[in-house]
């Protein structure tokens, strides 16, 4: 026994049951996975970098983009089109705000939290991000007939961040013993 009254093994057996070495303490709790925070932060920081570059190019000159400006790959056509603004704001600024806002939501402390509003905000933000990305991909392919490589990088990072966040949300969820999903 330790000073806290727990067995020296670290496994709480105060409920009268025998726990195996694989059972986490506290019943249905799962140990916090570290990968969602690591993957999420890497994707988010990369997104901040690319979106910051696109924002810089927007406010200086689209010619600052080291991307062809003719043919299918045409960053200038995409970043200066009428679709490059949403609610009067440059899409690059919205992307930068999205990724900067995701940084605190991807921190290890945020991933350890089981506070439902935080978990829903993180997942909801990525759903909104993917929704905007799908619209922008549609615009590039079917309205503008041009693709911006930097925009595509932001799109890919957003989709990967959504996938990582969705999987991480499921893998770090804590279920009461009665609420365990089928198959666990």
Describe the structure.
The structure is a single chain. The protein has 184 residues and is mainly α. The protein has one domain: Up-down Bundle (de novo design (two linked rop proteins)). Helix content is 56%, strand content 2%. The protein is built from 6 helices and 2 strands, in the order ααββαααα. It has a two-stranded antiparallel sheet. Strand 1 and strand 2 form a beta hairpin. Helix 5 packs antiparallel against helix 6. The longest helix is centred in the C-terminal third of the chain and has 29 residues.
List the helices and strands and how they pair.
Layout: H1 35-60, H2 75-79, E1 85-86, E2 89-90, H3 91-105, H4 108-112, H5 116-144, H6 149-171
Antiparallel strand pairs: 1-2
Concise synopsis of the structure shown:
The chain has 184 residues and is an all-alpha fold.
Low-confidence stretches: 1-30
Outline? elongated
Number of helices: 6
Helix content: 55-70%
Strand content: under 5%
Features:
single chain, 184 residues, mainly alpha, de novo design (two linked rop proteins), two-stranded antiparallel ribbon, 6 helices, 2 strands, 56% helix, 2% strand, disordered N terminus
């Amino acid at each position: 026994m330790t000073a806290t009254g727990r067995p020296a093994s670290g496994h709480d057996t105060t409920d009268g049951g025998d726990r195996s070495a694989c059972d986490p303490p506290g019943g249905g709790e799962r140990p916090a996975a570290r990968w969602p925070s690591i993957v999420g932060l890497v994707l988010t920081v990369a997104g901040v970098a690319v979106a910051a570059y696109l924002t810089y190019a927007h406010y200086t000159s689209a010619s600052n983009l080291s991307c062809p400006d003719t043919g299918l790959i045409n960053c200038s056509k995409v970043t200066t089109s009428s679709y490059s603004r949403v609610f009067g704001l440059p899409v690059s600024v919205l992307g930068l705000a999205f990724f900067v806002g995701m940084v605190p939501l991807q921190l290890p402390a945020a991933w350890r939290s089981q506070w439902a509003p935080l978990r829903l905000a993180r997942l909801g933000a990525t759903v909104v991000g993917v929704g905007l990305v799908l619209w922008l991909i549609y615009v590039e392919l079917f309205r503008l007939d041009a693709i911006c490589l930097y925009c595509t990088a932001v799109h890919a990072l957003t989709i990967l961040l959504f996938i990582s966040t969705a999987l991480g949300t499921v893998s770090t969820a804590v279920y009461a013993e009665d609420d365990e999903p089928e198959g666990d």
